[in-house]
């Protein structure tokens, strides 16, 4: 149990680092520093930011030291996270015969972080292609969520209730809705469509503006195109923004409905606390989204909205954990556990 708790603590520390990487990645993207270093993994051929780049260096993009440092700091944090995840995977494999030790998830996280590194490289070398930028965001969020899940499941603390099936299904659906909404948010940011609708709740003075779904959600435009600043026309950007708003309404109804139902019907204080946390973060995230529009996308609010998405995702992950009791390894001669109480059915 002590060994599992220490392993869970290491996973939790990795999750904290992953959260920092996600927030830094959002800051880099939202401050238009994604191409601050035109190569990968270094910056203008160096492991740090050079003081100057001469005209004969072979790099067409001029050095902007501020943007370059933002990009490199993000890479340093991501590299540190990769090493911690590699350690988690190695420890899990070495302890694979111990009861209760997760193996598939830590080893899978190693593969995921390697793929994340490739996405980070393609983000730069493919000049901020929206599909890659959005996939890189989702990969970071997935890494963060899976690390938190690993820490919770390896923590050795059993859930206090045996949750009924409908709540679990609803919580899992809420998790899926949040993931889709994060993807829509990433697509909105990657296509520079956050201010395509500068008013709220209407879009350029209309409830349903001119739309172009074909152009808005064309995933592949080919290589060699510089996507900095976006390439979509006004109608396509409004479409992307509008769909993200519709997704916000769906998320509010799905996740908010689950929160209200659990607060009204759950008997376990732990379930109620988890639901309350989800509800509070949901309201904060909606408020930050509206603030992005009415305030003209200030950097602090935009970065907070990115961090809020990660926080909301994690709160729903925690809720799913609470609704799924942890299977505890017990000795063969241990007495049978007492029956656990459940949630009141709807």
UniProtKB/TrEMBL annotation:
Membrane topology (UniProt): Multi-pass membrane protein
Write out the GO biological process terms: heme A biosynthetic process
- Recorded GO CC terms: membrane
Pathway stated in the Swiss-Prot or TrEMBL entry: Porphyrin-containing compound metabolism
MF terms (GO), sorted A to Z: metal ion binding; oxidoreductase activity
The protein here is known as Cytochrome c oxidase assembly protein subunit 15
Tell me which InterPro entries the record gives. Answer: COX15/CtaA_fam (IPR003780), COX15/CtaA_HemeA_synthase (IPR050450)
Keywords in alphabetical order, please. Answer: Cell membrane, Disulfide bond, Heme biosynthesis, Iron, Membrane, Metal-binding, Oxidoreductase, Transmembrane, Transmembrane helix
Q: Principal place where this protein is found? A: membrane
TM segment ranges: 73-93, 105-125, 131-152, 172-190, 242-263, 275-297, 303-323
**Location in or out of the cell:** Membrane
């Amino acid at each position: 149990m002590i060994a599992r708790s220490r392993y869970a603590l290491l996973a939790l520390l990795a999750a904290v680092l992953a959260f920092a990487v996600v927030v830094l990645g959002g800051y880099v993207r939202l401050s238009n520093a994604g191409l601050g270093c035109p190569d990968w993994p270094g910056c203008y051929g160096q492991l740090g930011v050079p003081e100057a780049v001469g005209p004969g260096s072979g790099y067409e993009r001029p050095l902007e030291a501020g943007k370059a440092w933002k990009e490199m700091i993000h890479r340093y944090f991501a590299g540190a996270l990769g090493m911690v995840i590699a350690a988690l995977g190695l420890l899990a494999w070495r302890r694979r015969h111990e009861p209760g030790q997760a193996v598939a998830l830590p080893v899978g996280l190693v593969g995921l972080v390697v793929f994340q590194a490739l996405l980070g490289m393609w983000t730069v070398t493919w000049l901020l292609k929206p599909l890659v930028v959005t996939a890189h965001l989702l990969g970071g969020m997935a890494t963060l969520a899976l690390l938190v899940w690993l820490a919770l499941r390896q923590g050795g603390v059993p859930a206090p209730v045996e949750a009924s099936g409908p709540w679990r299904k609803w919580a899992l659906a809420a998790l899926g809705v949040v993931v889709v909404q994060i993807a829509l948010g990433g697509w909105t940011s990657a296509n520079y469509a956050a201010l395509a609708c500068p008013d709220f709740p209407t879009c350029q003075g209309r409830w349903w503006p001119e739309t172009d779904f074909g152009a808005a959600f064309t995933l592949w435009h080919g290589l060699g195109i510089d996507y900095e600043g976006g390439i979509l026309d006004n109608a396509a950007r409004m479409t992307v923004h509008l769909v993200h708003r519709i997704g916000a309404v769906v998320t509010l109804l799905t996740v908010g409905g689950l929160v209200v139902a659990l607060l009204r019907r759950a008997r376990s204080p732990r379930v109620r606390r988890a639901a309350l946390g989800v509800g509070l973060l949901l309201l904060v995230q909606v408020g930050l989204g509206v603030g992005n529009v009415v305030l003209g996308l200030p950097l602090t609010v935009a970065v907070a909205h990115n961090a809020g998405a990660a926080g909301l995702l994690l709160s729903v992950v925690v809720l799913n954990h609470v609704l799924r009791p942890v299977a505890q390894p017990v000795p063969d001669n241990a007495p049978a556990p007492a029956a656990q109480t459940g949630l009141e059915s709807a």
